[in-house]
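Input record, target 12 of the design panel.
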């Protein structure tokens, strides 16, 4: 039985890769950091099938010990401070966890299990103020946030350990991927959660920032298959993963609210722009300055040709299906809560 270690198992992607690895018959270890209250909501359904082990990306010895004790065949490094706005408030912490944390993992592998295969969760945020459209493995990075800068460090240190020590270390440059398990601070889930709450009369208006930002949104369940595939190749390499289709935040709002039974008409400009329900005339969405970022990433679009060709990977869930799945998930949750 192959052994896998997942950092960030309590997060969105960690929970999906754990599902996949269990299905494939792996012995699954998940690293969890100490919190004042447990946050195992996303892994509740597999709680008895995975082994939860303590550790923190900020603590070198805890990582060394885990890798020494477990001797994993595959390591998925999904833990990070992953919310872009927080990276401006806590840039040093973000650098420590999201950037240097990767070196701590790689050093632990180098000393304790140099033949383990390592997956690093790189990000399209590294392309930031894009210099090319669409973005491929060859597109230069121009990160626009402390998060993007930390991910660029994590990316290159992964490449460096592969080249310096011959460690099987790969980087998946993943574009935004979402699901009903997405954190509620990210824009997609914030929208689907609000659409459901407004439907049940427990919220009036959703406040958002830049409605014109465009993202290449895919489904997290599809993307974890690719993480696994990357570690099954003969040669370690880096891959861009996305759908090759971008949509604006405004389009996401339109579709999410449509799935919840509303039809939005946009009115006004800039900070005065409002999303109004055609039937009731109520303001469902308003723009608020507080959700704008000091430096924005305006438009991300993946060129996933290499992954399609070399990994034989293709996403299965379309944009429309993804939005529907997320709205349905939130509606079901509030249905239960309000009964
Ligand atoms: P997420 O839901 O925010 O999960 C982050 C995970 O990291 C959580 O399990 C969290 O634990 C853990 N964590 C944070 N700081 C830690 C530390 N110091 N030590 C140990 N664990 C720590 O993120 P996600 O959406 O699943 O993303 C997974 C990875 O892919 C992240 O590295 C993210 O930056 C990257 N990424 C995500 C996307 C995307 O669109 N989702 C795209 C590209 C790259 P707690 O539960 O204790 O907070
Ligand atoms: O923002 C705009 C915002 O926070 C998307 C992380 O998983 O993907 C994620 O980073 C866009 C931005 O994701 C609101 O300005 C408008 O342009 O959902 P997000 P992100 O910043 O793209 C990458 C690939 C990662 O690696 C990250 O870990 O939406 N936006 N209004 C808003 N965003 C938020 N959060 N909240 C708003 O009210």
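The sequence produced for target 12 reads:
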């Amino acid at each position: 039985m192959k052994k896998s270690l997942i950092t960030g198992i309590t997060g969105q992607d960690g929970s999906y890769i754990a599902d996949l690895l269990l299905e494939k018959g792996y012995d699954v270890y998940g690293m969890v950091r100490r919190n004042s209250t447990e946050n195992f909501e996303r892994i509740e359904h597999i709680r008895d099938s995975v082994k939860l082990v303590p550790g923190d990306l900020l603590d070198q010895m805890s990582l060394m010990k885990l890798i020494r004790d477990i001797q994993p065949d595959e390591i998925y490094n999904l833990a990070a401070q992953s919310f872009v706005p927080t990276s401006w408030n806590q840039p040093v912490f973000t650098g420590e966890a999201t950037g240097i944390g990767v070196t701590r993992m790689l050093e632990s592998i180098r000393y304790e299990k140099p033949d383990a295969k390592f997956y690093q969760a790189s990000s399209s945020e590294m392309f930031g103020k894009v210099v090319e459209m669409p973005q491929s493995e060859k597109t230069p990075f121009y990160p626009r946030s402390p998060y993007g800068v930390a991910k660029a460090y994590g990316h290159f240190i992964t490449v460096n350990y592969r080249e310096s020590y011959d460690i099987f270390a790969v980087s998946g440059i993943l574009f935004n991927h979402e699901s009903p398990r997405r954190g509620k601070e990210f824009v997609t889930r914030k929208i689907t959660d609000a659409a459901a709450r407004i439907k049940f009369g427990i919220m009036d208006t959703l406040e958002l920032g830049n409605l014109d930002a465009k993202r290449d949104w895919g489904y997290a369940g599809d993307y974890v298959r690719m993480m696994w595939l990357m570690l099954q190749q003969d040669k370690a390499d880096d891959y861009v993963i996305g759908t090759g289709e971008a949509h604006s935040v405004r389009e996401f709002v339109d579709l999410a609210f449509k799935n919840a039974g509303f039809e939005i008409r946009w009115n006004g400009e800039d900070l005065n722009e409002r999303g109004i329900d055609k039937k009731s005339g109520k303001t469902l969405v308003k723009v608020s300055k507080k959700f704008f970022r000091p430096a924005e990433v305006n438009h991300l679009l993946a060129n996933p040709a290499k992954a399609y060709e070399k990994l034989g990977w293709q996403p299965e869930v379309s944009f429309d299906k993804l939005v529907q799945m997320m709205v349905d998930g939130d509606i079901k949750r509030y249905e239960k809560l309000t009964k």
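The chain has a mean pLDDT of 98.
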